[in-house]
Design goal:
InterPro entries: WD40/YVTN_repeat-like_dom_sf, WD40_repeat_dom_sf, WD40_rpt. The protein is mostly beta strands. The chain is built from 2 helices and 30 strands. The strands form 8 sheets. Strands 1-30-29-28 form a 4-stranded antiparallel β-sheet, with no helix packed on it. The protein has a 4-stranded antiparallel β-sheet with strand order 2-3-4-5, with no helix packed on it. A 4-stranded antiparallel β-sheet has the order 6-7-8-9, with no helix packed on it.
């Protein structure tokens, strides 16, 4: 059931980030960021963060990290810019945060590969891994899996589950890399102490090509199990063996785990949850042959008070009137909140 609508963006919604205090941060394809209070259903902060579409918003301690098609990652304290650095934005991939300290991005020199940056508290960054090629690793270890293919194409989507970063490619391949952060070693003699930092280790954990040739466009964690969607008509649950869920619509824009089920949103605007289907119609089209629905551009679950830090945020939570909310962002710049049974 639809319970709220947020309207202030003038471009298609590109990202939605629910915050632990109950507020929500949203972005659009023009580079605008808005922080919302759901209690009053109004913006409480609006700023132009980038000059192109924002692909990722992450919370890092007191900071907000934004990543855009304008080839920058920026670190913000509210709407005040604290640090920025250039990244590759030739593709539409997100970036991900590992152990709240390491930012994994498409590589600056090659959209098929990854870079890893350490985030420093000031804030600043240190590049720890440069232009690592998952394709080359698989080519070396499991050549039969990719025989006849020269690469996987550009990175489309990334997701962290535990110590593994899953990377979804334009080819339809998914690669899981286990990340090991080694402890620094300390050597001492009579006059000095030397701290030696060791390199981050990336090892092949998983490879799946069931989606080939459809590009990966969505990934989610079902507990600790990967679920993935592509431009095709299926969702894969990466158990052993892999479970294939066939769908009636193509273009799996979002996969949202909720309780014991999975909510799937499609590019065409259809959202399916169990036996329930949500379609948001364009209100100004009356002719039978012109009926259409608004295209979905982002979707996530905003947990209700029972799922969040009720001690730290007890004051604001007492005033809340919403439980768990499915937040759907649309091509017309609207964010709609739905309750899901």
């Amino acid at each position: 059931m639809r319970v709220l609508a947020l309207r202030a963006h003038k471009a298609p919604i590109s990202y939605i980030l629910p915050l632990p205090d109950g507020n929500v941060i949203t972005s659009d394809q023009s580079g605008t960021v808005i922080k919302w209070s759901l209690q009053i259903k109004r913006p409480i902060l609006t700023w132009t963060a980038h000059t192109d579409s924002i692909l990722t918003i992450l919370q890092w301690g007191q900071y907000i990290i934004t990543h855009s098609r304008d080839s920058t990652v920026k670190i913000w304290l509210e709407d005040k810019l604290k640090y920025e650095f250039p990244v590759n934005a030739l593709n539409f991939s997100n970036v991900v945060l590992f152990q709240d300290r390491y930012l994994i991005t498409p590589a600056t020199t090659d959209s098929n590969n990854i870079d890893i940056y350490k985030l420093n508290d000031d804030p600043s960054i240190t590049r720890e891994v440069t232009n690592f090629s998952p394709y080359d690793l698989i080519h070396k270890l499991k050549f039969d899996d990719i025989e006849g293919r020269k690469d996987f194409g550009i990175i489309m989507k990334m997701l962290i589950i535990g110590n593994v970063v899953y990377i979804g490619y334009e080819s339809g391949d998914i690669v899981g890399l286990e990340i090991t952060i080694p402890q620094p070693s300390i050597t001492q003699d009579a006059t000095s102490t030397l701290l030696i930092n060791r390199d981050i280790k990336l090892t092949l954990y998983y490879h799946n090509s069931f989606h080939v040739p459809n590009p990966i466009i969505s990934m989610a964690a079902l507990d600790n199990t990967l679920a993935s969607g592509s431009t095709g008509k299926k969702v894969l649950i990466h158990t052993d063996p892999v479970k294939v869920c066939k769908l009636t619509n193509s273009g799996v824009q979002s996969i949202v785990p909720y309780k014991e089920s999975t909510i799937v949103g499609f590019w065409n605007g259809v959202i399916e949850s169990g036996n329930e289907t949500i379609e948001r119609a364009l209100p100004h089209l009356d002719a039978e042959d012109m009926k259409t629905i608004v295209k979905l551009t982002y979707m996530c679950m905003r947990p209700g008070p029972a799922s969040r830090d009720v001690v730290k945020y007890s004051t604001s939570i007492k005033r809340e009137k919403y439980g768990d909310l499915l937040l759907a962002g649309y091509e017309d710049g609207t964010i709609v909140g739905y309750t899901v049974e």
